[in-house]
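Reviewers asked in the last cycle whether our approach scales beyond single polypeptides. To address this, we selected a multi-component target totalling 549 residues and predicted its structure end to end. The input consisted of the following lines:
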Amino acid sequence: MINILVPIKRVPDPYIKVKPLPDGSGLDVANVKHEINPFDEIALEAAIRLREQGVELAITVVSIGPDEAEEQLRKGLAMGADSAILVQKQGGMDSLGVAKEIAEIAKSTGAKLVIMGKQATDDDCNQASQMLAALLGWGYCSCASQISLSGSHIEVRRETDSGEQRVSLELPAIVTADLRLAEPRYIALPGIIKARSKPLEKRVPVHNDQVQYRVLSVESVPSRKAGKMVQSVPELVAELKSLGAVS
Amino acid sequence: MAGCLGICFSPLDAAANVAFAKALGQDLSLLAIGASLPNFGAKQIFELEFSPNDPSEAIVNSIWTYIQEFSAIVAPSSIASKDLIGLLAGKLGRPAVTDVIRVVGGNRFQRPILAGSVLATVEVEGSPLLATFRPSSFQPSSVPTLDGSNPAAEVIRIPATPSARTRVLENLQGAQKRPDLAQAKVVVSGGKPLKDANTFELVIGSLADALGGAVGATRAAVDSGIAPNDLQVGQTGKVVAPDLYIAAGISGSTQHVAGIKDSKIIVAINKDKDAPIFEVSDLGLVADLFEAVPELTAIVKR
Ligand SMILES: Cc1cc2nc3c(=O)[nH]c(=O)nc-3n(C[C@H](O)[C@H](O)[C@H](O)COP(=O)(O)OP(=O)(O)OC[C@H]3O[C@@H](n4cnc5c(N)ncnc54)[C@H](O)[C@@H]3O)c2cc1C
Ligand SMILES: Nc1ncnc2c1ncn2[C@@H]1O[C@H](COP(=O)(O)O)[C@@H](O)[C@H]1O
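The resulting structure, written as C-alpha cells, was:
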C-alpha cells in the first residue's frame, strides 16, 4: 500500500473575474464562488486513476485554509480520495509556509508520493511544490502530462520549455500536474453521499515561523481598450502599414 | 562578494538578467547552464556543463556551494527557472517571488496574479532574494557590447553532479524551428478551429513565416493535438510581448489574454463578432480565418 498525498487549494472560480477591494488591501472574494484549484483537481484525478489501474493506494487530500475549504476537501473525497486533512488557517499562507505544513503531513502520514498542482490559479506562484521537494529532500518532477507507477518508481512524461521529456523517479517523490495530465471526472451522487462518512481531520498549523513574504497591496490592471474593426484583409494590411507593424 | 547572480538557461537570458540586476541596483554575475555566454559586463561567469533539460534537483546540487555568497539569485521566468529558483528557496528556507514585472524599490516587487488581471505589490524580508522575472518587462536599454570592450569576466567552470534518483529517459523536441516564442517580434497564434496539426502548420505557420515570426497556440489547440505543448501561450503557458500579435480563431479567454496583453499591437481574426478577443485587440476583422489568413499571407509575401 502506497500513501499518496494530494494537496488541494481553495481558490476563486478561475472563470470569474475577481476584483481588488476599493482600498487595495486585498481581493473582493466574499461572494465569489470557490473551487478546487484546477491543477489540483487534475492531480487528484491522476492519483485516483493510478488506483483504478490496480496500484494499491491510499489517497489523502490536504488543504491549508479557512474552514470553508472543507467544501473543497469534501469534493475531493467525493471524487475518490480516502481521507482528508484540513490545516486551519484564516487569511492565506505563503508558499514556503504551505510547503512546511505539507512536509509535516507527508511525514506523519508516511506518504511516499505527493501529486499536486503546478500552480495555484489565484496567486500564480508555482513555488510550493519545489519548496516541498527541497524541504523533504525527495525527487521532483514538474508539469506532468502522463504518469505511471511501477514498484518503487514513477515514470513521468512532462512538458518542458522546448518540448517534452520522459523521466523516471525513485520514490519518495513529488510530481506536479500540468493541464493535460487528466480530465477530472464528473462527481455522481453516490460519491457525494459516500464522502460524508469519510474521515476529515482538522489540524492547526505546526509552523509559526516569522513570515518573510507579504502581499502589501493589490490593484486592478487597466485592461486594453478595444481598437478598430476593419472590413477586409487589404484594409487590415493598410492599417498595419500605417502603424509600422508590417513593411 | 555579494551581488546578483543571474541564471541563464540560454544565451538569450543574459540581456534580461543585465536589465534586472540594474533594476535591483546590484552587480551582476551570471550562471550559464549548458551554454557559453559572451561577456555582458558580468563580474563573474559560472559555467555548468549541463543541459537545461537535466533534472533541476541535480542542477541545485551542482551549484549549491557556488551560490552561497549572493544577495540575489534570479532568472527570467520559464518552467526550468521556476523549478530551480523554487528548489533553491526551499533548500535555503527562503521565500521566493515569481514573475516580477517591476522592482518597486529595495525589497518590494510587483507581480501579476489571477491570470494577470490583478497586480500585487509584495515585500520580502531578508537575504538572499530569490526571484523569477518576466523578460518582457526587463529589456536593457542598450545591450552591452559583445566586441571585447568589456573587461573579461572571470570564468568559473562548475562540474555537474548527476542526480541519484531522477533519470531522464528521453527528450522529445517540440516545435523549435521558428524564432523563440518568448522573444519574437511577431507572433501568429491559432486556436481550436484549426482542426489538425497539418492545417495549423499550413495556415498559421505560413503567415508566421511570411512575417518572420514565431507561432503560438491556445490551450484548446494544444489539448486537441493541433499544436505542440511548448507553443501554448497564456496564464499557464508562455507569456509573449511581441510588437505584433495576430490571433486567428481564438476566443480570447482571460487565461489566453494573460499571456499576450503586453503585446504592442494585437490583431484578431474571428468569425464571431462578439468574441471577447475583440475587446483587447487594436485591429479586429470579422472573417473566416481559412479565407482571411491565407489572403493576408499572400499580401505580406508580395
Ligand atoms: C487553469 C486554466 C489554465 C488555462 N491556461 C490557458 C493558457 O495558458 N492558454 C490558453 O490559451 N488557454 C488556457 N486555458 C483555457 C482557456 O480558458 C480557453 O479554454 C482557451 O483559451 C480557448 O481556446 P480557443 O480560443 O482556441 O478555443 P475556443 O474558446 O473554442 O474559441 C475558438 C474561437 O474561434 C472562432 N472560430 C471558429 N471557427 C472559426 C473560423 N473558421 N474562422 C475564424 N474564427 C473561428 C470562434 O468564434 C471562437 O471564438 C486555461 C484554462 C484553465 C481553467
Ligand atoms: N493553501 C494550500 N492548501 C493546499 N495546497 C496548496 C495550498 N497552496 C498551494 N498548494 C499546493 O501547491 C501548489 C502550487 O501552489 P503555488 O505555489 O501557490 O502556485 C498548488 O497547486 C497546490 O497543490
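Chain A is about 25% helix and 30% strand. We regard this as preliminary and will revisit it once experimental data from Aim 1 are available.
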